[in-house]
Specification:
With about 375 residues, the protein is an alpha/beta fold. It is about 40% helix and about 20% strand. It has 13 helices and 13 strands.
Amino acid sequence: MAASKKKTIAFMLPSLVAGGAERVFVTLLKEFDRSRFFLHMIVIDPSGPFLSIVPEDIAFHGLGYKKVSRAIPKMVNTIRKINPDIIISTLDHLNLALLLVKPFLPNNTLLFLRECNLTSSNLENGFKNVAFRMLKKRLLKFADRIICPANAIKNDLQINFGISPDKMITIYNPVQVEEIRSHMPPHHPGKPSSVYNIVAAGTLEYRKGFDLLIDVMSIIVEENHKVHLTLLGDGPEKENLRKQIHSLNLSDHVRLAGYQNNPFTYFSKADLFVLSSRYEGLPNAMLESLACGTPVVAFNCPGGIDEIIVDELQGALVPENDVHALSKAIEKQMRSHRHAKGSLLPDKFDAKAVVPAYEKLALSE
């Protein structure tokens, strides 16, 4: 495609913290075809661990604000200066801000919003969330397209927010399977470790349900002391989780390892990944663990979980919030003790399949 025919796309994020939405956009920017697109990235708060992995050949615009609300004038001016064909944005508060200022954006610019969470669950409680949900219900219909990382999110927006299916498209999160596996340590089959290693990862917040997982560990440890859980990530619940671990006498069995630049080493060395979320969108850590060849046990919570686990070789799903069912499923996996480490991730999540879907969407408008 000639340079004059290239489309200009601006990807927008609130920050570059180590989250799933941020990981998705960095991956897209790495993989998008430079011969067909001019790529920009606009970040409200240009800080966070993922800043170091943003591709150097894109146009990067750090606005220098901690809050989206304070950045709105500069955000509008930056967009008008770039004059993109398409804006692709993600995360609720940024998406809502863009909907509010859409009348002030260039007339030719299309607004594509990626809705990464199950909105009805994410904004269920609290006056602020209820008000935000009502405003979102009024404004979301003004987006030009809505990208849903799972069919569950698409169905939620149709049923609970009245969004037309014609406006929405399901495109899964892209996982760079080959790159992930290149960061894994060599696998040398041999004598199994005497300790069964479990890993979990995500922001240490209420919706991730790590408090439930620690309760599960207290049940398992009563029967089997040779089990250990490593929790990767940081967040507001860190101190509460630390206190819970101490109160249940699990200090020898549960470790809070904090944020890790290369979680794939932990995923690949683990015997099992556990997802204990109360609700989800489409959890990247779970996808990445499967790419590392590590099976998953998860609550079948609201979200796209059952769109990932489709084969018993990948692991198992149990009823949401059922601590005893989760402990039984983990114990069953402990008895099986798999050693094969080929990728368990369905091909539909591979970046090689996902990125072309994004490109096709952008070129079709």
